Amino acid sequence: MNRVATVERKTGETQIKLTLNLDGSGICNVENPIGFFDHMLKSFCKHGLFDLEGSLQGDLNVDQHHLIEDTGIVLGMCFLKALGNCAGIYRSGFSIYPMDETLVQAAVDFGGRAYLVCDSKLSGIPLVSICEGKEGSFQTDCFEDFWQGFVANAQCNLHIDVIRGRSNHHKIEGCFKAVSRALRSAVEIDERRKGAMPSTKGVII
Questions:
Q1: DSSP secondary structure string, 134-194?
Q2: Of 56, 90, 95, 110, whose CB has the highest number of CB atoms within 10 Å?
Protein backbone atom coordinates (compact mmCIF):
# COMPACT_ATOMS: atom_id res chain seq x y z
CA MET A 1 0.00 0.00 0.00
CA ASN A 2 1.41 3.35 -1.08
CA ARG A 3 0.45 5.90 1.56
CA VAL A 4 2.33 8.90 0.21
CA ALA A 5 0.90 12.36 -0.41
CA THR A 6 2.22 15.61 -1.83
CA VAL A 7 0.54 18.95 -1.17
CA GLU A 8 1.58 22.35 -2.44
CA ARG A 9 -0.01 25.53 -1.09
CA LYS A 10 0.82 29.03 -2.25
CA THR A 11 -0.65 32.22 -0.84
CA GLY A 12 0.40 35.85 -0.68
CA GLU A 13 2.06 35.04 2.65
CA THR A 14 3.60 31.57 2.30
CA GLN A 15 4.80 29.05 -0.27
CA ILE A 16 4.83 25.51 1.11
CA LYS A 17 5.30 22.12 -0.52
CA LEU A 18 5.46 18.88 1.48
CA THR A 19 5.59 15.19 0.60
CA LEU A 20 4.63 12.81 3.41
CA ASN A 21 5.18 9.05 3.60
CA LEU A 22 3.18 7.55 6.46
CA ASP A 23 5.21 4.32 6.28
CA GLY A 24 8.66 5.86 6.31
CA SER A 25 11.74 5.49 8.48
CA GLY A 26 11.81 8.90 10.16
CA ILE A 27 13.66 10.97 7.56
CA CYS A 28 12.98 14.70 7.48
CA ASN A 29 14.42 16.66 4.58
CA VAL A 30 12.55 19.97 4.65
CA GLU A 31 14.06 23.34 3.78
CA ASN A 32 12.98 25.25 6.86
CA PRO A 33 14.14 28.80 7.63
CA ILE A 34 13.31 28.61 11.36
CA GLY A 35 15.94 26.72 13.36
CA PHE A 36 13.86 25.51 16.31
CA PHE A 37 10.89 24.68 14.09
CA ASP A 38 13.23 22.61 11.91
CA HIS A 39 14.32 20.74 15.03
CA MET A 40 10.66 20.06 15.93
CA LEU A 41 9.76 18.69 12.49
CA LYS A 42 12.82 16.43 12.57
CA SER A 43 11.78 15.15 16.01
CA PHE A 44 8.21 14.65 14.75
CA CYS A 45 9.43 12.51 11.86
CA LYS A 46 11.98 10.56 13.88
CA HIS A 47 9.54 9.51 16.60
CA GLY A 48 6.55 8.93 14.31
CA LEU A 49 8.61 7.13 11.64
CA PHE A 50 7.21 9.48 9.02
CA ASP A 51 9.24 10.62 6.03
CA LEU A 52 8.77 14.28 5.14
CA GLU A 53 10.42 16.36 2.45
CA GLY A 54 9.80 19.71 0.83
CA SER A 55 10.30 23.41 1.44
CA LEU A 56 8.85 26.20 3.57
CA GLN A 57 8.96 29.86 2.61
CA GLY A 58 7.07 32.75 4.11
CA ASP A 59 6.92 36.38 5.15
CA LEU A 60 9.23 36.19 8.16
CA ASN A 61 9.70 39.94 7.86
CA VAL A 62 6.16 40.15 9.32
CA ASP A 63 6.52 37.39 11.94
CA GLN A 64 6.55 33.59 12.10
CA HIS A 65 2.81 33.07 12.51
CA HIS A 66 1.86 32.68 8.85
CA LEU A 67 4.60 30.16 8.04
CA ILE A 68 4.16 28.03 11.16
CA GLU A 69 0.36 27.91 10.97
CA ASP A 70 0.36 27.25 7.22
CA THR A 71 2.86 24.42 7.66
CA GLY A 72 0.40 22.80 10.06
CA ILE A 73 -2.33 23.25 7.47
CA VAL A 74 -0.28 21.59 4.71
CA LEU A 75 0.90 18.76 6.98
CA GLY A 76 -2.72 18.07 7.94
CA MET A 77 -3.71 18.03 4.27
CA CYS A 78 -0.92 15.52 3.63
CA PHE A 79 -2.21 13.19 6.36
CA LEU A 80 -5.78 13.41 5.05
CA LYS A 81 -4.69 12.68 1.48
CA ALA A 82 -2.32 9.85 2.43
CA LEU A 83 -4.93 8.14 4.63
CA GLY A 84 -7.60 8.15 1.95
CA ASN A 85 -10.82 6.67 3.37
CA CYS A 86 -9.01 5.42 6.51
CA ALA A 87 -9.95 1.79 5.85
CA GLY A 88 -7.94 -0.71 7.87
CA ILE A 89 -6.19 1.69 10.25
CA TYR A 90 -6.33 1.68 14.04
CA ARG A 91 -7.85 5.21 13.79
CA SER A 92 -7.02 6.36 17.34
CA GLY A 93 -3.72 6.57 19.19
CA PHE A 94 -2.31 7.69 22.50
CA SER A 95 1.14 8.48 23.85
CA ILE A 96 2.57 9.73 27.10
CA TYR A 97 6.08 11.11 26.69
CA PRO A 98 8.65 12.12 29.32
CA MET A 99 11.35 14.68 28.55
CA ASP A 100 13.48 15.43 31.59
CA GLU A 101 11.28 17.42 33.99
CA THR A 102 8.42 17.57 31.47
CA LEU A 103 5.67 15.00 30.98
CA VAL A 104 3.27 15.24 28.03
CA GLN A 105 0.31 13.20 26.87
CA ALA A 106 -1.33 13.24 23.46
CA ALA A 107 -4.38 11.45 22.06
CA VAL A 108 -5.71 11.51 18.51
CA ASP A 109 -8.74 10.13 16.66
CA PHE A 110 -9.12 10.21 12.87
CA GLY A 111 -12.89 10.18 13.10
CA GLY A 112 -13.57 12.82 10.46
CA ARG A 113 -14.24 15.65 12.91
CA ALA A 114 -11.73 18.39 13.61
CA TYR A 115 -11.27 19.41 17.24
CA LEU A 116 -8.21 20.57 19.15
CA VAL A 117 -7.74 20.72 22.90
CA CYS A 118 -4.30 22.09 23.75
CA ASP A 119 -3.09 22.74 27.27
CA SER A 120 0.60 23.36 26.64
CA LYS A 121 1.24 25.57 29.68
CA LEU A 122 3.69 27.68 27.64
CA SER A 123 4.80 31.04 28.99
CA GLY A 124 4.38 32.78 25.63
CA ILE A 125 7.95 34.06 25.83
CA PRO A 126 9.79 33.43 22.53
CA LEU A 127 12.74 31.05 22.48
CA VAL A 128 15.91 32.76 21.27
CA SER A 129 19.12 31.13 20.09
CA ILE A 130 22.13 31.81 17.88
CA CYS A 131 21.37 29.94 14.68
CA GLU A 132 23.68 30.61 11.75
CA GLY A 133 21.85 30.77 8.45
CA LYS A 134 18.38 30.37 9.99
CA GLU A 135 15.96 32.38 12.07
CA GLY A 136 17.17 31.90 15.64
CA SER A 137 13.98 32.71 17.51
CA PHE A 138 10.75 30.73 17.85
CA GLN A 139 7.44 32.39 18.65
CA THR A 140 5.94 30.08 21.26
CA ASP A 141 2.50 31.64 20.75
CA CYS A 142 2.44 30.02 17.28
CA PHE A 143 2.62 26.50 18.74
CA GLU A 144 -1.14 26.06 19.16
CA ASP A 145 -1.80 27.69 15.77
CA PHE A 146 0.31 24.96 14.12
CA TRP A 147 -1.77 22.18 15.64
CA GLN A 148 -5.06 24.00 14.98
CA GLY A 149 -4.11 24.19 11.31
CA PHE A 150 -3.18 20.52 11.41
CA VAL A 151 -6.42 19.17 12.93
CA ALA A 152 -8.64 21.38 10.75
CA ASN A 153 -7.16 19.83 7.64
CA ALA A 154 -6.38 16.29 8.83
CA GLN A 155 -9.98 16.10 10.12
CA CYS A 156 -9.01 14.59 13.43
CA ASN A 157 -9.52 15.16 17.15
CA LEU A 158 -6.27 15.97 18.95
CA HIS A 159 -5.77 16.47 22.66
CA ILE A 160 -2.39 17.73 23.88
CA ASP A 161 -1.73 18.13 27.59
CA VAL A 162 1.47 19.10 29.37
CA ILE A 163 1.08 17.34 32.71
CA ARG A 164 4.07 19.10 34.22
CA GLY A 165 7.21 20.88 33.11
CA ARG A 166 9.44 23.93 33.48
CA SER A 167 11.28 24.53 30.20
CA ASN A 168 9.32 25.86 27.20
CA HIS A 169 11.79 24.01 24.97
CA HIS A 170 11.05 20.71 26.70
CA LYS A 171 7.29 21.31 26.72
CA ILE A 172 7.15 22.04 22.98
CA GLU A 173 9.50 19.23 22.00
CA GLY A 174 7.74 16.78 24.31
CA CYS A 175 4.44 17.71 22.64
CA PHE A 176 5.80 17.16 19.13
CA LYS A 177 7.17 13.76 20.15
CA ALA A 178 4.03 12.69 22.00
CA VAL A 179 1.77 13.73 19.13
CA SER A 180 3.94 11.96 16.56
CA ARG A 181 3.86 8.73 18.57
CA ALA A 182 0.08 9.00 18.96
CA LEU A 183 -0.31 9.64 15.22
CA ARG A 184 1.93 6.70 14.41
CA SER A 185 -0.30 4.40 16.48
CA ALA A 186 -3.46 5.80 14.89
CA VAL A 187 -2.42 5.52 11.24
CA GLU A 188 -0.81 2.08 11.43
CA ILE A 189 -2.58 -0.75 9.63
CA ASP A 190 -4.54 -3.06 11.97
CA GLU A 191 -4.09 -6.54 10.51
CA ARG A 192 -7.05 -7.89 12.50
CA ARG A 193 -9.34 -5.32 10.87
CA LYS A 194 -8.59 -6.81 7.43
CA GLY A 195 -9.23 -3.59 5.55
CA ALA A 196 -12.59 -2.81 7.15
CA MET A 197 -13.62 0.71 8.07
CA PRO A 198 -12.82 1.58 11.70
CA SER A 199 -16.31 2.98 12.32
CA THR A 200 -19.77 1.60 13.07
CA LYS A 201 -21.04 4.09 10.46
CA GLY A 202 -19.12 2.20 7.78
CA VAL A 203 -17.50 5.47 6.67
CA ILE A 204 -15.31 8.19 8.19
CA ILE A 205 -17.05 11.55 7.78
A1: SB-EE-GGGHHHHHHHHHHHHT-EEEEEEEE-S-HHHHHHHHHHHHHHHHHHHHSB-GGGT
A2: 110
